[in-house]
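2024-03-11 09:14:02 INFO queue: dequeued item Transcriptional regulator, AraC family protein, len=278
2024-03-11 09:14:02 INFO validating residues
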Amino acid sequence: MLGSERQLWSHLSDKPTIVTSGARAGWRGFAFQEIEVPPEGRFDIHQAFIALSMTCGPMKVRRGSARAAFVDVPTDPLMMLPGQEAVGAWQGVQRGLHLVIEPDAIERYIGRSYREGAFRRLQGTEPTIEHLLRALHIDVRAGHPSGAGLGEAIVTALLHHLLTEDAVSAPTAAHQPAAPADVKRLQEWIEANLARPITLHELANERGVSIRHLCRAFQAGTGHSPYRYILIRRVERAKELISEGQLNLRDIAATVGFAHQAHMTDTFRKIAEGFRLA
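2024-03-11 09:14:37 INFO prediction written
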């Protein structure tokens, strides 16, 4: 299990400053932080989780003994897997983005148990992975206005790009094709729970499938990802309430599940361009 925010950095001699954190997002099985390390320090890593990291600027790292030279570390995404170890030191104040995933969470997200060799090796520049990490960072900095669902969708997409083709291609019970009736029941469940935060984990549990399979089935059945479908339904329901004229915009936002009126307004700009809120 993931420990406290500080426990994630117990392998560092000097504890970093946590700049932003997804601790309040309601995510299960993964954590995300932006941290700033002090000017220098040592690390002794015995990795227990899947860790994906990316520094926001250059820094110098020495691996191994104190006799080794410090070398520049690129800003490309780096990954460490359970069982891997690293000892050394760093120089230079720098911020970094860090995603940590429990091995047991892999099955919930893609329907596969974690196994050695399931992840491909990262090769230098990884534009898609960098883009997804930055998207997760934006969601964390914004305070998760759409709830846990966006972060869950981003991590599912990251895992899809990080895992080898063999790790995600073999069929399992959690990847059986969804019948139209299954998607219809999920749509009904969303409608009944629209006013509260909805997580992809909840939706996947409703049908007993992985989050990755849920996203693929929903896309095939509705033409939208679950996350976007929920936003569209909230917008459509908000339009109905606005037309009825019984509630103010703040109350409408709360009634249909938006975090606040500003979140509803921003979502309308993206999805319902041309519709006047007032």
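2024-03-11 09:14:37 INFO annotate: The chain has two domains: 7-142, 171-271.
2024-03-11 09:14:38 INFO item closed
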